[in-house]
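Exercise 7. Predict the structure of Ferredoxin from Mycolicibacterium duvalii.
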Amino acid sequence: MILWRAMAENLTTEGFAPLRIKQVVRETCDAVSLVLDVPEDCSHRFRYKAGQFLTLLVSVEGRDLRRCYSMSSAPLEDELRITVKRDPGGVVSNWLNDTATAGSELQAAPPEGKFVLDEGVSATAPLIAFAGGSGITPIMSLVRTVLADSERPVKLFYANRGRSSVIFSDALEQLADAYPDRLTVRHHFDEDAGVVSPETIDSFAGDSAAGHFFICGPTPFMDTVENALLSAGVTKDRLHLERFTVAEIPVDAAETQDTEEVVIELDRKKTVAAYRKGDTLLQVARSAGLRAPYSCETGSCGTCMARIVEGSARMVNNDALDDDEVAEGWVVSCQALPTSPRVHMIYE
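Solution. The predicted structure, encoded as C-alpha cells:
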C-alpha cells in the first residue's frame, strides 16, 4: 500500500496540489480533455503509470467535491492529460465540461489506482481491452504504453451508443495506421447492433488461454464482459477492472448483522463510534468527524484500505485487494459492511 505524504511545498495536508490547465481539447460534444501543468517542486509526486487516475477537489456551488478521472495520456508522452465526459446528473463532470479554461487551476491529488499493467508479464503476451463509452480513457493510456514499450499485440473492443460518442476516434485511427500488425480495433455501436452480448464478447476475445484482459465502462457493460470471459475460462488473475461509478450498497445488504460499535484508529488516534445500520466503514468514519482517506468510492483504487484487527466485515465490491490481502484482514472501507457486534479497524 502506498500512502501519499504532503512533502512538497505546494501540497496541502491532504496531498492536493494546484495544477494549471495548459490546454482544453474538445474530444466530442460531451467530452473534454484537460492537459495539466504540474509545478516543478512536486513533479515527482505526479509521475504515473498507465491506467491510473487523479482525484480532483473542486468547489461547485459552495460544495467541496472529490471526483476521480483517469489519465488518457501515456507516461512516455511526458504529459498529464485527463479526459472527462459529461454525465446526466454528474455535477463535477458537467462543471468541468462547461467551465474549464486554459490558465485556470485545479486541485489534484497525486496519481493512484491499480488498473495498471502487470509487472513480469511477457513482452509478447496479448493485451485485450474492452471499453464502453468514457471507459476508453484509462484503456487509451494502456494501449499507447503497450504499443510503444513492448512487442505485445493489442486488441481493443470499443462500445458506444453511436458514432458521435466515440472519444479519440482520430487518435485510434492513427495508432492503427502506425501499428497495423499489432493493433486491432473493433467498434460496436448500440444503434446498429443493440447492446453488447456475451456472444459478441466471446467472438472478439478469441483464445482465452492467452493474454491479460482490461475492462472499463458502464456497470452493465462491464458485468457482461466479465461474466463472458469468466465463462470462457479466463482466470481472475488475468482480469483487470476499473469502475467509474460508485457501487450502490443494496438496501438489505446489512440485514443479518447486529453491529453496535466500530473502533477506528487513524493517525495513531482511536475513536469509538456507534454504528448505524447499512453504513459502510468509511461512512462510519466520516460520521465520526474523521478525515479518513478515500478516493474512488467504488472499491477499485485501494486508497481507503483499512485492516480489521477485531471482528469482521464483508465487501460489497472489491477490485483493489488480492486474496492474500483479504486473508490478512484488509478491506476497502468504502465497500465494507461490518458483520460482527464490534469491529476494530486501523488505517495504516
